[in-house]
Structures are given as C-alpha cells and as structure tokens.
Amino acid sequence: MKAVNRRDFLKLSGTTLIGVTLGGTSLRALAQEQLQADDPTAKALQYTPASTVEGSTCGNCMYIQGEDGEAHRPCAIFPGKLVNTNGWCSAWVKKPG
C-alpha cells in the first residue's frame, strides 16, 4: 500500500469534509458527470472504475450515496462526480451493517 503524503492527505481531508457536510441529497443534485481515472483527486486516491480488491467496491463503501442498483452514484469523497459502483479507491471503508 502506498503511503499518503501530506498534500494528498490534505486533499482527502478537505474533500471528505466537504462531501460529508453536503449530505446525500445535495450530492445527488450536484453530481453531474462520471469520475474519470485521470482526475487529480482520483489519481491521488488510486480510483479505478473496476475494483481489483476482492469484496471491496464503491457500491459497498460507506461514502457512496444514492439508490442501490444504479451503475453510477454520487460519492462523498468526490463531490460533484459520479463513481462506478464496481469501482474502488484507497479511501474505501466498509459500509456499516
């Protein structure tokens, strides 16, 4: 696993705070386009639209928003973007429950 440097940590902290503050409904309204792997934040968090980590996908991460069954959904980590529910990033945390 790659160590996160100070700059990447600050980016992650800032986007997480913004994403969590906005809440699910606001994120759904703001999300307009699919997250691209070449997005700077996506690169910093090693986002991939197809998870290679068994049992870990955006669809079962605590940061995912929106309704189950949608192929692309808003994520608190990437405000204004839609992530592939089969994707993964290094901020992945198992959804409680």
UniProtKB/TrEMBL annotation:
Which PROSITE patterns does this chain map to? HIPIP, TAT
Q: Known Gene3D superfamilies for this protein?
A: High potential iron-sulphur protein
Q: Which UniProt keywords apply?
A: 4Fe-4S, Electron transport, Iron, Iron-sulfur, Metal-binding, Signal, Transport
- Please give the coiled-coil regions recorded for this protein: none
Quote one Gene Ontology molecular function term. Answer: electron transfer activity
The High potential iron-sulfur proteins family profile domain extends over 29-97
Q: InterPro entries, per this entry? A: High_potential_FeS_prot, HIPIP_sf, TAT_signal, TAT_signal_bac_arc
Instruction: Tell me the Gene Ontology biological-process terms attached to this UniProt entry.
Output: aerobic electron transport chain
Q: What SUPFAM superfamilies would the database entry show?
A: HIPIP (high potential iron protein)
List, alphabetically, the Pfam families matched.
Answer: HIPIP
Function as written in the Swiss-Prot or TrEMBL entry: Specific class of high-redox-potential 4Fe-4S ferredoxins. Functions in anaerobic electron transport in most purple and in some other photosynthetic bacteria and in at least one genus (Paracoccus) of halophilic, denitrifying bacteria.
- This protein is called High-potential iron sulfur protein 2
Native species: Alteromonas aestuariivivens
Lineage of origin = Bacteria, Pseudomonadati, Pseudomonadota, Gammaproteobacteria, Alteromonadales
